Amino acid sequence: MSVEWFRVPSAGSVVHLYQEREIRNEDQIPSYRGRTALSPEELKRGDASLRLTGVRASDEGRYQCLIQSKMWFDDASVQVQIKGTEPVISMEVPHRAGWVSLLCESKGWDIQPDLLWLDSEGHSLPAAATETHRDSEDLYTVRRHVFIQDRDTNTVTCRVHLQDRKLEKETEFHITAEMFPVPRWKASLAVFLPLAAAALIGCAVLTHRYREQGNLSI
């Protein structure tokens, strides 16, 4: 039996060849070297799925699989489309009291996508400029910061989308009051007021005692 994966429409563009229980990739496209594999166990079950690692932007396109034996023949084709990761939202160290700094990041896009921050009603939020990085595999990573003020919104959404493909991915992030740092003067009051109250109560108790003992003249 033989299983051959190749690119379409290029003739003779071998991606992976399994023949007579051996891998025969002498004529394999150089860019696929060391990145393709078939599972022998899955082949026994009739599954000839190709595993492709180290995905690159150039891997996008149509692939065809030919399966042959002495008794039968079959083929199938598949369209491979490179999609980035789900957006990941992380909270960073606040740059000032009353604000929260959030970062959204998405990786692995073959085309540079747009990245938007939205409030709980779906309206676009003012945000920093989008940072873009293109790696050695020609795949894009996009990152964007947004600064949220206390009571602005209780939920934000990071959306990454490709308009031409009508493709989008998004992640929600719920904001709570505990995420906002307390200003120093409020923190000082939180310590001072209980102490002041305790001191006043102490003075009132002493005054009451002196009055009872007749030692205090008013």
From TrEMBL:
GO biological process, one term: T cell activation
One Pfam match: C2-set_3
Major localisation: membrane
A GO molecular-function annotation: signaling receptor binding
CC terms in the record's Gene Ontology section: external side of plasma membrane
InterPro entries the record matches: BTN3A2-like_Ig-C (IPR053896), Ig-like_dom (IPR007110), Ig-like_dom_sf (IPR036179), Ig-like_fold (IPR013783), Ig_V-set (IPR013106), IgSF_BTN/MOG (IPR050504)
Domain Ig-like stretches: 1-81, 87-168
Keywords, in A-Z order: Disulfide bond, Glycoprotein, Immunoglobulin domain, Membrane, Signal, Transmembrane, Transmembrane helix
Protein location: Membrane
Membrane-spanning residues: 187-207
Family the UniProt entry places it in: Belongs to the SKINT family.
The protein's name: Ig-like domain-containing protein
Species of provenance: Albula goreensis
